[in-house]
Amino acid sequence: MGASALPADASVLAIDGAVKRFGSRTALAGLDLRLGDGEVFALLGPNGAGKTTTINLILGFLRAEAGTIRVCGIEAGEDPVGARRHVAYIPEQVALYPGLSGVENLRYFATLAGLDPSKDEARALLAEAGLAPEAHGRKAGAYSKGMRQKVGIAVALARRARLLLLDEPTSGLDPSAAADFSATVRAAAERGTAVLMATHDLYRVREMAGRVGVLSGGRIVEEIDPTALDHAALERLYIERLAEVAS
Fold this sequence. Notes:
This protein has helices spanning 51-58, 80-84, 102-112, 119-128, 145-159, 175-190, 202-208, 231-246; strands at 13-22, 25-35, 40-44, 66-71, 74-75, 87-90, 163-167, 194-199, 211-216, 219-224.
């Protein structure tokens, strides 16, 4: 379950001048972003802003026309498999095997990564990810979205992923589940995991993220310290920046 060491000054994620086009449409127009150990960065933007494209470039599913995307020093476009060894991705809807329990799902996905956690280790990881002990042996088909996400985070913990990618993680969660998931993400960051979250949830970014980048027109048009603004001020600034790009 070990992870390879990095130089102390290395970024977990380094995106420099990334450009991605789909035909005549430019999805990313020179995106720059750096993320270090234990940082939580929220890419905040409307649908079509380039959030999902950014995630797919990091995962190596797409290649940029220009610029570089490095994960733990590995160029994602040149060595996507190597880069993905350091990444855990939790999509908007986490897919688990419904007939398997939380413990069994975690052990199965860990096995795919070349790991072999015992049942006790799997239970400890699920508890660390915030899944209640009484749910560990329950079939995943009965899990809520928030519970499935926690299994996903437990898999990331098992792999000791350096970078956790979250795509619209709070979409469809009720307020209690969203607050619970926010606490889980903060706990992962406190253990040193870097977190990049693509979202349009203005409210939750203030709870989870230490830095917020407003993504519009394929680039970050403003970086914000969310703790410096209340929700109304953050919403106003976000709308203003989107309007400036559109004008």
